[in-house]
Fold this protein.
Amino acid sequence: MTGIPFPIERGHVLAFARALGEETAAVPPTFPIAFAQFDPDWPLRMQPGKPWNGSGAGPGVSSNGTGGLHAEQEFEYFRPIRVGETLSARRGDGRTWQKPGSRGVLHFTERHFEFYDADEKLVARSTTVSVRVEEAR
């Protein structure tokens, strides 16, 4: 299995569901984004002793092309995600584009994430869009 191992642990699923205000043992529909907690290179993951440049951290702040604001996310499922399995998360770059905004140029970045099971079957796909403002001078 290639990619970032993403164990689907009952405690992690329950904590995620509770953060959403749900009390369920089922895997919530937005749970695949939690794979970032297992990715040591995730640019928005906090690291001891380093400044955090998280979403919306401010104008011009960027971490490896991220930063700015989380603008959109969608999930597509090919089967339910099951507690107890380990998925493999794989990243891919998507489109980039820009358009004028009231405060400056808006830069959009799309990223794709695919989640495979132990049999290398595609379980879910996610697309994320972030936007960063390049303030007018």
